[in-house]
Specification:
Bound molecules: ligand TLP
Radius of gyration: 20 Å
Low-confidence stretches: none
Distance between the termini: 23 Å
Shape: globular
Helix content: 40-55%
Oligomer: single chain
Strand content: 15-25%
């Protein structure tokens, strides 16, 4: 199968499995797993933060951050295309009593600065207090677009002025750094907390990391424990994470090159309108024209029969994601199957 539904589908390679088998372990709730400690130290170092905490998933990482930054009845400002808003089962509201205040994400993944400034609550007996702004880099639903360090700094400036915290859902922050050709630490320098995922383009089977100041991470550890995310001999999965950071991180640029090539090959096929003909990272989004003979479900089925899996992010909005297990040859196969089915 050529599985383009997400970069989450990557399976551990034989070399990664070997590292997993050899991992030294201990009880991480006691802070005694040497491999987890090594992963946390290496992650904090890569992102220029004081401390880091290993967590089972990106969703739990974002939720741990939100619950640590915000009290019940407070408000968080975020984009209407944010994963935290769209795809985390309303966890912040359901479990933290945190009210989302959404603002439109622009095509480039940003939220307008004057809009952010406008919606920060002033002190009034009727208002929930604003506590946090959250950004996403890369911005998945805007096409996997990277946000620049400059934009993030501008949002951080507002946060400082208004005495708010800034959290970054950096599930794919290393994709952003690779696309912009910058040091990842520079991209997150201005944020108070950042979560990144090991289980996406980096190819580890499980795991994410939350980074921030030492004091913040110490509090987040309590939150993680409350959510049931305290793990025991987690070194077996942390070892895969360390391998992913050391060996797979440099390969992200290849995924980006393949996504660009896929977009080029799909451009011009009748019925396909690319959101961005030159995607910056590993995601190719396109709309299927409504007058196509082949409906979305039928197309999905026909592709499946030919060994290709695709994802839908809306009725007719298709997302194809390149990752470690997608080869150059697959790009050629996928584009010619699309051409054959749609012409
Ligand atoms: N995204 C998944 C789906 O949930 C949509 C995907 O296939 O892209 N932040 C961002 C920006 C994400 O894209 C995701 C996963 C998460 C957080 C959550 O990570 P997990 O799946 O580890 O909880």
């Amino acid at each position: 199968m050529i599985d383009l539904r997400s970069d989450t589908v990557t399976k551990p390679s034989p070399q990664m499995r070997e590292v997993i088998a050899r991992a030294e372990v201990g009880d991480d709730v006691y802070g005694e797993d040497p491999t987890v400690l090594a992963l946390e130290a290496e992650s904090a170092g890569l992102l220029g933060k004081e401390a880091a905490m290993f967590i089972p998933s990106g969703t739990m990482g974002n939720l741990s951050a939100l619950l640590t930054h915000c009290e019940r009845g407070s408000e968080i400002i975020l984009g209407d295309k944010a994963h935290i808003f769209l795809n985390e089962v309303g966890g912040a509201a359901a479990l933290g009593g945190i009210q989302p205040h959404i603002l439109p994400n622009q095509k480039d993944g940003t939220i307008k600065l004057d809009e952010i400034r406008r919606v920060v609550r002033f002190d009034d007996i009727h208002h929930p207090p604003t506590r946090l702004i959250a950004l996403e880099n890369t911005q998945n639903m805007c096409g996997g677009v990277p946000l620049t360090a400059e934009y993030t700094r501008s949002v951080a400036k507002i946060a400082r002025e208004k005495k708010l915290k800034l959290h970054l859902d950096g599930a794919r922050i290393f994709n952003a750094a690779a696309a912009l050709d910058v040091d990842p630490a520079g991209l997150v320098e201005a944020v108070d907390s950042v979560m990144f995922c090991l289980s996406k383009g980096l190819g580890a089977p499980v795991g994410s990391v939350l980074c921030g100041e030492r004091e913040f991470i110490a509090r987040a550890r309590k939150t993680r424990k409350m959510l049931g995310g305290g793990m025991r001999q987690a070194g077996v999965i942390a070892a895969a994470g360390l391998y992913a950071l050391r060996e797979n991180l440099p390969l992200l640029k290849e995924d980006h090159r393949r996504a660009r090539e896929l977009a080029q090959r799909l451009e011009g096929i009748p019925g396909i309108s690319l959101v961005d003909p030159e995607p910056a990272t590993n995601m190719v989004y396109f709309e299927l024209d409504s007058n196509l003979e082949l409906g979305p479900d039928q197309l999905k089925q026909e592709l499946r029969e030919k060994g290709i899996l695709i994802g839908f992010e809306g009725d007719r909005l298709v997302r194809l994601v390149t990752h470690l297990w997608i080869r150059d040859e697959d790009i050629r196969v996928v584009s010619s199957v699309f051409r054959e089915l749609l012409t």
